[in-house]
Design a protein that fits this description.
- There is one protein chain.
- The protein is an all-alpha fold.
- 80% of the residues lie in helices and 0% in strands.
- It has 5 helices and no strands.
- Helix 4 runs antiparallel to helix 5 (83-96).
- The model has no long low-confidence stretch (mean pLDDT 90).
- Its EC number is 5.4.99.5.
């Protein structure tokens, strides 16, 4: 860290215009970081469960991917979160495919 970065106020580091807002932002960022850690853990758990499903499907002679199920997932996320939910679901499906 440069000496300039060390001398910045909390308000300057957060982009806030007051120390009060900077404090609020700092606390909220800490909470977001914790939520991100939980989300990452849940995604990893989803990937593991998906691998079990894929293995069972393949072992039974089926295909790795069930397109109708993927459409259900896309619809669920889209209904809950709108268009960005569809993009999020696509990313999750991509992460969970082909891990077996």
């Amino acid at each position: 860290m440069t000496s300039t970065a060390l001398t910045k106020t909390a308000a300057e580091r957060t982009g806030a215009h007051t120390d009060e807002a900077a404090s609020l932002i700092g606390g909220a960022r800490t909470r977001i970081d914790a939520l991100d850690d939980r989300i990452i853990g849940l995604v990893q758990e989803r990937m593991a469960v998906s691998a079990v499903i894929q293995e069972a499907r393949i072992t039974s002679g089926g295909r790795r991917v069930n397109l109708s199920r993927e459409m259900d997932v896309l619809s669920h996320y889209s209904d809950a979160l709108g268009k960005p939910g569809t993009a999020l679901a696509m990313t999750l499906l991509e992460l969970c495919r082909g891990r077996v």
